[in-house]
Write a structure and sequence with these properties.
Shape: globular
Largest sheet: 5 strands, antiparallel
Strand order of the largest sheet: 1-6-13-8-11
Oligomer: single chain
Radius of gyration: 34 Å
Structural class: alpha+beta
Number of strands: 31
Distance between the termini: 77 Å
Length: about 800
């Protein structure tokens, strides 16, 4: 561990020796030019009792001690070499760790990881000749130090220089460039960073440079009669090779869709370097982008879907997440267990089931639509905007690559929450009041058999003593203990249907995978899991459940045909006893599901597997109990037990059918997914609008709304139409208005005509909202009878067992 120098005077002396930031100490007339910035960076400053800074630490490293390590996420600090030097090492496939450079005193390093949002690309060690002093600077100081003209220029120059060198190192391997070629290429290549909407080149302009896209997304468009169109291209491609040997013009225009890093090589200068030109032409040929529109050779309707999904994923920034949470709405049963699980693991839910909705094609056919919701939860962006405004450095990128917040450093200013474009950071009381909970066996049993979800905490009303919270990938919780070989996420682990998945967006969304090149692919995005694409355990549970159900049923039926229920087989046991015991064991196994549903704070295998096992074991137990009962109903208690068991099975099967069909029906008619609370609020608004129009002063308008509009749309037939036709809301409203166009034209007053059209729109929308609310309720309507009949069945079964054991002992 390095030795930290506590003296602030030593820190000031170190800054004085560093030419790039020595301006921080510049003074005139006895006053520092950057007095407040200097105080914050070196000493720290109190704002209304809350400490901000210091941001600089002076450390002494032993000879050969590592300062940063290759592959580590280090997006919170960068460094200056105060004295001695540091050595830079990289890991190679054949030679292991190899020294590639040395940085002298006054140099700085680590800013690439901080600015680009990527892991460290090299290991930096203190010189082997003696102890080395290093000035460690935290991320919040960067915006203060950038005010220094010299440091701002040096930082930008260093970023471009290292970005250029990193990209050239890739080209060296691809094109087998010699050291002499690398020297020539380094002298003419430029690394540039462009902002969103910059036009990279225009159609029909001369191809005057080769462009290698290191990071970013490009919209290609072409204007030509019969050949127009557009598509999108990602990083890892090379543009402009056609202009190396001859004068050519660009076949299309290219506009940047966000911050983009590009290596430029001027064609004019390259033409004079014959060997370098030939090597690059050969090496980069396989990285040219496909012709515009050639990559997706599908029918027009399919290609339009792909392009629409690509554009939305890029524009919303979902594709640039390093760990994205997505919900497949065809699987989501709207139970809210994901948000509840987040609340139980963190004490405050950090998962809001509203967010960015994408409709895409899972496969190249029009029917393969997938409705995906990316909830308002942290995406752990590669270039996080939330980090730029934090005055204390409380929010940063931590060891596992996640963006996280240190509560002890957070002062509750809310800058990170306002900076986040995805509403993924929440301000909550630092010491929230705990809600009163019932205790005791009765309360525990009631909780296990509950139907309603736990109430979420009330809205935050206080304005002081707040702290920022957000998703941290369940780091530091019992779900991810030290030494765990894999990561677990509470929301994903506790989804009963597997609708939630933590994914790598560039692999999950095949339409994005198709438009990325392979030149500069790295491992910085390969973090999330994708249970929608591959879930071997789920498949194994299905196979085991089907086989176990078939085998046990077949064996018992064969045994019954041969021996009957009463003939003894195993000592004193006959098939009635055997089927009863097997059924009882099955019921006991089935009841482990509500127990697992209460486990949030430790790993207990994903809830989706328990749900599948619950279903299959319930079917097996049901078959065994039905065979156990035979053709005789028995006494009153036994008959009641069989009836309640039948109800349990029937409601369970109905629930399974609802889970399979209702979410898919919802996604087909709802458009953007909505919570039932949102739907209820919207229904209330629409009722109010209709009532206001119906009570209009115009008798003609009032009568039309009451006698024709309301009966037409607020009817059973129009409700059923929502489920059968499944039109989009825009088409539905267009047709509804068309029905009353003739009536509207007959009204003399223009305001009445507009009000009638508004009433028609409100009534038709109201019926769509009603249809969605009924589907939401259908997902839960089977639960109360299922839980109630299960409770009654368990009570009757205990009586039955006692009765059987009592009579058997005589």
């Amino acid at each position: 561990m390095p030795l930290e120098h506590k003296s602030r005077r030593e820190v000031l002396d170190a800054i004085k020796t560093l030419s790039s930031i020595s301006e921080l100490l510049s003074a005139h007339d006895g006053h520092f030019d950057y007095e407040i910035d200097l105080e914050v960076v070196v000493y720290g400053r109190n704002y209304s009792g809350k400490k901000v800074g210091p941001y600089a630490r002076l450390l002494t490293y032993d000879p050969g001690e590592a300062v940063v390590t290759e592959g580590e996420w280090g997006g919170n600090t960068f460094y200056f070499v105060v004295d001695q030097s540091v050595d830079i090492f990289i890991n190679t496939h054949d030679k292991g760790e190899v020294k590639v450079a040395q940085l002298a005193a006054g140099s700085h390093f680590g800013e690439m990881s901080l600015l680009a949002g990527v892991p460290r690309n090299a290991t930096v060690k203190a010189a082997a000749t003696g102890p080395t002093r290093i000035l460690e600077v935290q991320r919040p100081a960067l915006r203060l130090l950038r005010k220094l003209p010299r440091f701002g220029d040096i930082l930008d120059s260093a970023y471009r220089s290292r970005g250029r060198d990193n990209t050239l190192d890739v080209l060296k391997e691809i094109a087998n460039l010699t050291p002499e070629m690398m020297i020539s290429l380094r002298s003419i290549a430029q690394f540039k960073v462009f902002s969103k909407n910059h036009v990279l080149f225009r159609q029909k302009a001369n191809v005057d440079r080769i462009l290698i896209v290191k990071e970013g997304w490009i919209r290609r468009s072409r204007e030509a009669q019969g050949q127009g169109g557009e598509d999108f291209i990602g990083s890892g491609f090379c543009f402009g090779l056609e202009g190396i040997l001859r004068n050519e013009v660009w076949a299309y225009s290219a506009t940047l869709m966000g911050r983009t890093e590009i290596l430029e090589i001027p064609v004019g200068k390259l033409r004079s370097e014959t060997r370098l030109r030939e090597a690059l032409t050969k090496g980069l040929a396989s990285f040219e982008p496909p012709a515009l529109g050639a990559r997706v050779q599908y029918p027009t309707s399919v290609r339009a879907r792909y392009l629409a999904a690509q554009e939305k994923l890029i524009d919303t920034g979902l594709v640039d997440a390093t760990n994205l949470l997505v919900m497949d709405m065809d699987l989501c049963v709207r139970c809210g267990n994901c948000s509840l699980a987040c609340h139980n693991i963190h004490g405050q839910s950090r998962l809001l089931r509203r967010g960015i909705h994408v409709t895409r094609l899972e496969a190249p056919r029009p029917a393969a639509l997938q409705s995906v919701l990316a909830p308002s939860v942290c995406m752990h962006c590669q270039d996080p905007e939330c980090l730029t405004g934090c005055p204390t450095g409380a929010i940063g990128r931590f060891g596992a690559g996640q963006i996280d917040i240190s509560p002890s450093i957070c002062i509750g200013c809310g800058d990170c929450a306002t900076q986040c474009p995805y509403n993924a950071i929440t301000m909550v009381p630092r010491s929230p009041k705990k809600a009163a909970t019932e205790v005791g066996f009765a309360a525990t049993l009631k909780n296990y058999l509950r139907v309603k979800s736990d109430p979420l905490p009330p809205a935050v009303e206080q304005t002081d003593d707040l702290v920022a919270v957000k998703c941290n990938l369940c780091t530091g919780t019992p779900l991810n203990p030290p030494g765990a070989k894999s990561r677990a996420y509470s929301c994903e682990e506790n989804c009963p249907t597997g609708a939630l998945a933590r994914i790598n967006p560039r692999e999950y969304f095949t339409e994005i995978e198709q438009i990325e090149g392979l030149m500069l692919i790295d491992s910085t995005h390969a973090i999330g899991r994708n249970i929608h694409r591959s879930d071997p355990t789920r498949r194994l549970v299905h196979i085991a459940g089907i086989l176990l159900t078939a085998i046990t049923t077949a064996l018992v039926v064969l045994a019954l045909n041969r021996y009957g229920l009463g003939q003894r087989l195993l000592g004193a046991l006959n098939l009635r006893w055997i089927t009863g015991i097997v059924g009882l064991v099955g019921i006991a196994a089935v009841m482990t599901y509500p127990v697992r549903r209460q486990i949030y704070r430790r790993r207990a295998r994903p809830l989706r597997y328990w749900m599948l096992a619950h279903s299959y074991l319930g079917v097996i137990a049901g078959i065994m109990i039905l065979l156990h009962g035979g053709t005789e109903s028995g006494g009153v208690l036994t008959t009641a037990l069989m009836i309640t068991y039948d109800v349990v099975i029937a409601t369970g099967l109905f629930g399974a059918l609802c889970y399979l069909t209702v979410p898919r029906l919802l996604t087909k008619i709802e458009g953007t997914p909505l919570l039932i609370d949102d739907l209820k609020a919207r229904r209330k608004e629409l009722h109010s609008e209709l009532s206001k129009i119906a009570s209009s002063r115009s008798p003609v308008l009032s009568n039309l709304v009451r006698d024709r509009v309301v009966p037409r749309f607020i009817s059973l037939g129009y409700l059923l139409r929502q489920y059968l036709k499944r039109e989009s809301l825009e088409i539905l409203l267009g047709r509804a208005k068309a029905e009353f166009n003739g009536v509207a034209v007959g009204l003399a007053d223009e305001k009445d005509r507009q009000a009638l059209q508004k009433a028609v729109e409100s009534a038709a929308t109201l019926r769509r909202v009603d249809a969605l609310i009924y589907l939401h309720r259908l997902l839960k309507v089977w639960l109360p009878p299922h839980v109630a009949s299960t409770s009654l069945m368990l009570a009757l079964m205990m009586v039955h067992i006692i009765q059987v054991v009592y009579y058997a002992s005589w």
